């Protein structure tokens, strides 16, 4: 089974080329591939499949050739992944499937995402919707947060720098299941001086549903930017966000949310499909 490995600011993915949609992908197989000791290791799997070959893409494809079939490390599926979009796009460009300097539309479970290629890649993300206050509980500490929909669910909790540094994210913070019945990505964000050319700055860490703490989360960066702008009384602006894996820039208006950052494909190879399938029942 062919694979590639890529990352966007440290948020890493196993990339499976499957243009005709023939790979029998299952939650257990995905979890086995993402196992960092017995599989390849990743925060998730990106299956590269044509929209016409995947039933979830057909209704929203609108002429877009490629569908991002994204799976979390635990084998669950997700609607959107901002870093995944950029890594998927980089793979397509390096495989000669799209213009490496052009623009194209990519289908996701959260809708069609416009992508602009370059040294860094820009993805037109779903416009974040800030909708309710809630809280997250972690190791006895309670954090007030703001719920945000970016095509997938987020809870953004403002903290100070010492709290951000000291957070223990080895297990999922508890949240209100009535507000987040399908789980939620939880971002903790601390403010700082805005770099030249930007309006606001945040440093963040994230616990992603289905993956644990990751080095970066693109849709989470968009959620953090939306909350930062909201609390600053701004309906538009540029927010620079530093994560453990690197820097992302979010440019937001009432009708558009652009996520810009690096994306790298670091390896290509073959995985022993029989060995992975033998491991997969461990995760069933």
From TrEMBL:
Q: Which UniProt keywords apply?
A: Amino-acid biosynthesis, Cytoplasm, Isomerase, Lysine biosynthesis
Asked whether the keyword Cytoplasm is assigned, the reply is: yes
According to UniProt, where does the site described as Could be important to modulate the pK values of the two catalytic cysteine residues lie? Answer: 154, 208
Q: Which residues cross the membrane?
A: none
Its annotated compartments are: Cytoplasm
* EC number of this enzyme: 5.1.1.7
Is-annotated flag, keyword RNA-binding?
no
Pfam families with a match to the protein in the record: DAP_epimerase (PF01678)
- Reactions it catalyzes: (2S,6S)-2,6-diaminopimelate = meso-2,6-diaminopimelate
* Positions with a binding annotation for substrate: 11, 72, 82-83, 152, 185, 208-209, 218-219
Pathway field? Amino-acid biosynthesis; L-lysine biosynthesis via DAP pathway; DL-2,6-diaminopimelate from LL-2,6-diaminopimelate: step 1/1
PROSITE patterns of this UniProt entry? DAP_EPIMERASE
Q: Please classify the protein's predominant subcellular localization into one broad category.
A: cytoplasm
| SUPFAM superfamilies the record matches | Diaminopimelate epimerase-like
Which Gene3D superfamilies does the record match to this protein? Answer: Diaminopimelate Epimerase, Chain A, domain 1
Please name the catalytic residues of this protein. Answer: 81, 217
Function, please? Answer: Catalyzes the stereoinversion of LL-2,6-diaminopimelate (L,L-DAP) to meso-diaminopimelate (meso-DAP), a precursor of L-lysine and an essential component of the bacterial peptidoglycan.
User: Which family, according to the similarity comment?
Assistant: Belongs to the diaminopimelate epimerase family.
Subunit-level organization: Homodimer.
Q: What is the official name of this protein in its record?
A: Diaminopimelate epimerase
